[in-house]
Design goal:
Order of helices and strands: EEHHH
Number of helices: 3
Strand content: 5-15%
Keywords: Cell membrane, Membrane, Transmembrane, Transmembrane helix
Helix content: 55-70%
Family: Belongs to the Casparian strip membrane proteins (CASP) family.
Subcellular location: Cell membrane
Strand order of the largest sheet: 1-2
Largest sheet: 2 strands, antiparallel
Pfam families: CASP_dom
Structural class: mainly alpha
Subunit structure: Homodimer and heterodimers.
Number of strands: 2
Distance between the termini: 40 Å
Shape: elongated
Length: 141
């Protein structure tokens, strides 16, 4: 959702326009790349997870999977936190740094980036639960 976020507003005339895109800020680019990397990892690790469910004796691959899951959780949390900082500035601004809040003008843009951020934090929560469940299942055996 973040990768397709943009909005254009006219300024004085129809020929002069302001445009807001996610790739205007490197932080949002990092957010998109981090979420894409974690999503790709999740899709690639799914067959290994299914294999571990079917074969309960595969202890070493479970440990490796938990380690990689934890690394992906760190990447997802970093991307989400970086995005949250910029979304906060977009909504509130910072008067000390003379950064104005842009969400009054770019309303659709801010709604989409906020929704993307909420989805990313849902992913963080899901990863935490999955890691805890995997670790507790490994500890029981």
């Amino acid at each position: 959702m973040m990768a397709t976020t943009n909005e254009t507003l006219p300024f004085f005339t129809q020929f002069i326009r302001f445009r807001a895109e996610y790739n205007d800020l490197p932080t949002f680019t990092f957010f998109v790349v981090a979420n894409a990397a974690v999503s790709a990892y999740f899709l690639l690790s799914l067959p290994l997870s299914i294999f571990n469910i079917l074969r309960s004796s595969a202890k070493n691959s479970r440990i490796i999977l938990i380690i990689f899951d934890t690394g992906m959780l760190a990447l997802l949390t970093a991307g989400s936190s970086a995005g949250a900082a910029i979304v906060y500035l977009a909504h509130r601004g910072n008067t000390k740094a003379n950064w104005l809040a842009i969400c009054q003008q770019f309303n659709s843009f801010c709604e989409r980036i906020s929704g993307s951020l909420i989805g990313s934090y849902v992913g963080v929560t899901v990863f935490i639960v999955l890691i805890l469940l995997s670790a507790s299942a490994l500890a029981r055996r």
